[in-house]
Amino acid sequence: MDSKGLSLKGSLPLLLLLVSNLLLCKSVASLPVCPSGAANCQVSLRDLFDRAVILSHYIHNLSSEMFNEFDKRYAQGKGFFTKTINSCHTSSLPTPDDKEQAQQTKVQPGVKENEVYSVWSGLPSLQMADEDTRLFAFYNLLHCLRRDSNKIDNYLKLLKCRLIYNNNC
Ligand SMILES: *[C@@H]1O[C@H](CO)[C@@H](O)[C@H](O)[C@H]1NC(C)=O
After folding, report:
1. Phi-psi category of residue 88: left, alpha or beta, with phi > 0 → left and psi -120 to 50 → alpha
2. How many secondary structure helices (H) and strands (E) does the chain include?
3. What sign for the dihedral angle of Cα 59, 69, 134, 2?
4. What is the rounded distance in angstroms from the CA atom of residue 138 to the CA atom of residue 119?
5. Are 123 and 108 in contact (CB under 8 A)?
6. Residue 149 Cα, ligand 1 centroid: separation in angstroms?
7. What is the pLDDT of residues 117-142, one digit of tens each?
8. Might you report a single GO cellular component term (predicted)?
9. CB-neighbour burial class of residue 59 (10 A; exposed 0-12, middle 13-18, buried 19+)
10. Where are the domains positioned within the chain?
């Protein structure tokens, strides 16, 4: 039996579970929000941002590692990368293209902009019988996770710089 496609089907969800557990154990546990037993503790906005930035950096790092690993194992010579252009379901969300645009974006705490949601409908493609179609679906998902986690990481750092350091960083 060809075990490549089969084992992939079973191991990716496991990998994702492992990653989320790693996140919980490694970063969150080593950064207690409050002293243990504290009934009523307050965390400064700066501390919250510090934690969020560490986590988002870590999530982006893991996403990149997963993408690289998948690419190495399952995508060699398949030309998947050229098919990923504008292929993320999150591409339709309006986000700044670069640092300059992001810096000009207005931040208005408490004011909700017109909310735009983007629904992911890729589950059936992860379950396709055709191996290459299925592999590309996983490849694309990991590509998008890496791309989006990078954006989140960058915007969070920018926001921290703006709100905590008044743009002096
Ligand atoms: C992720 O972080 C580790 C440890 O800092 C580093 O060695 C590795 O190169 C990073 N991976 C990527 C893809 O940036």
Report:
1. beta
2. 6, 0
3. negative
4. 17
5. no
6. 14
7. 788 999 999 999 999 999 999 999 99
8. extracellular space
9. buried
10. 44-87+122-169
Which residues have CB under 8 Å from 150's CB, separation 6+?
60, 63
Alpha-carbon dihedral 17, 146, 46, 22, rounded to 10 degrees = 20
The model carries a pTM of 0.74
Ligand 1 contact via 150 beta carbon (within 6 Å):
no
- pLDDT averaged over every residue in the chain: 82
Q: Is 69 in the pocket of ligand 1 (CB under 6 A)?
A: no
Give the DSSP letter of residue 111. P
| Residue of 60, 65, 66 with the most ligand 1 atoms within 8 Å of its CB, for mutation | 65
* 16 Cα to the center of ligand 1, angstroms: 18
pLDDT in tens, 54-107: 999 999 999 999 999 999 999 999 999 999 988 999 988 888 877 788 777 776
Domain 44-87+122-169 class in CATH = mainly alpha
The CA-based angle 124-145-164, given to 5 degrees, is 145
CA of 61 to the centre of ligand 1 (A): 6
